[in-house]
């Protein structure tokens, strides 16, 4: 696992036993701005409050640290700047490293608003005309700046230090909704900043003292977090944990991550010291709850990242157990947020069990990751794939696009296939590593670290790496084996072209992939990609419609054909929800006069009826194929 600067900070903060755990808002000198409580009293009290923190000059460059222009702290998740910063941290003597980090954080340069001279800056122009649709009752309006939302000084300071100059579209819409206390189901493209969209409201909510004043006695062995963030893979949980720690820096708020494959005893020790926000993979969390080491009775904020995957058959059983059968407060008594880049209708329907009077938000053509990813599909027979891969890698190398700042991620279908391709590449002079679910956790972490650092600029992966991972400098994603479901394709290619940057994705397609052809053509056309004539012909031959929800590329929310939004509130076909539509230009329509221009009017939501199969090793899942916990011949679908 990559070491984050904030991990280091966490180590320092955790040093020594804690006599008793006191939540941040009850501690002396809490950075909480008392006036923020009012926000929760009146969730829609935006107007009078906007502008209070507004200070556009803060967006300008405020100081230049010793690390030079924009190189001190990169943006998020193991970005270049963060790791450089970590490098700095290592050179600081052990005794005062924490102070030194604090000091350095204070010196960090804040980007110019346009971020023009920093290659790590998010390219906001890429998101200018993004379509946004929201539905539900009384949708709080979007904001243009972070300062407009009353996130509190400590969090706003950290946002600046993270170089988040302005919110991305999903943040502009989702954060005000969540800060207003509303339940939310949000769809937005890969790499568009969903993590911060659920982290900021949770941090802000806990700091504002809505957390029931939980105080753990000295000998408490049961951790009672206030916020819970669930994600499907260990690596993603670690990544989210790193983000939470950065955003919650110096707030006194404690975030802990628990996940499978790592020693549980160490994780027990971590939670015993107190935890405000727990980031977890479902399996390990259930284990800890069953051992009476974690209680969910104080949960006020629940976020499911990659929510459609979490509610798919592979995880649904565990998620229902956690959310409905343990001691978690029911919907309405907690705030629930579900985020993903893809949200099939039937999964939305399942998800609504966890939500109360929620808002559905769809930002952009879900899954197409805007037009930032240039997609190519080549017809390659299985026996020719290795040679074609070699050609691609060689031409990358020839154009100087191979190395530390140009990483290539190659997706394959099986764990064995990943190992075999890794060795073949290495024996042919291409430094590669592999990640999949049969590797022990240490090997997985080592592989990811080696890839991120550029030591092995090629990583062969199964779907365990397809969701959520934010790896800077991935410039090419190759679908060596096509996934069976279009949503998996969307997440895989989304490992490039993130945060407004451009990326490339190449897929090897042959007759065995015919079932996905039509969905692929639709997706590419929506993303304004050139579709080869032969692929269109394949789509014509494909027996599955793009919206059949079955094995044929299963993307049930594409049933509407003409829809420009991949994400769609299933309720709008079935029930009378207040509806509002907006664009990035804040065009709101009176809910009473709203007619959904994208609805064909003929769709009726199909009840989800897939049976739960008792054998834990075998579940048929939404994506139309069987998945087992260890089977080699069966594609891995990225569970943990
Ligand atoms: N407002 C912002 N300003 C600058 N950078 C940002 C901002 N919001 C997010 N980022 C950066 O953009 C990158 C992508 O964000 P994030 O990983 O949250 O995307 P995501 O939508 O969750 O993607 P995925 O669907 O793949 O999980 C991260 O490196 C993050 O630090």
From TrEMBL:
Keywords for the protein's UniProt record, in alphabetical order: ATP-binding, Helicase, Hydrolase, Nucleotide-binding, RNA-binding
Signal peptide extent: none
Helicase C-terminal domain mapped to chain residues: 385-539
The organism's place on the tree of life at top rank: Eukaryota
The EC number(s) this enzyme carries: 3.6.4.13
Pfam families per record: DEAD, Helicase_C
Domain named DEAD-box RNA helicase Q: residues: 144-172
Positions of region (Disordered): 1-40, 539-565
Catalytic activity: ATP + H2O = ADP + phosphate + H(+)
SUPFAM superfamilies listed in its UniProt record: P-loop containing nucleoside triphosphate hydrolases
Gene3D superfamilies: P-loop containing nucleotide triphosphate hydrolases (3.40.50.300)
A GO term for molecular function: RNA helicase activity
InterPro entries, alphabetized: DEAD/DEAH_box_helicase_dom, Ded1/Dbp1_DEADc, Helicase_ATP-bd, Helicase_C-like, P-loop_NTPase, RNA_helicase_DEAD_Q_motif
Residue ranges occupied by any Helicase ATP-binding domain in the UniProt entry: 175-361
Main EC class the enzyme belongs to: hydrolase
Presence of the UniProt keyword RNA-binding in the record: yes
Motif annotated as Q motif, chain positions: 144-172
Similarity comment text for this entry: Belongs to the DEAD box helicase family. DDX3/DED1 subfamily.
Protein name: RNA helicase
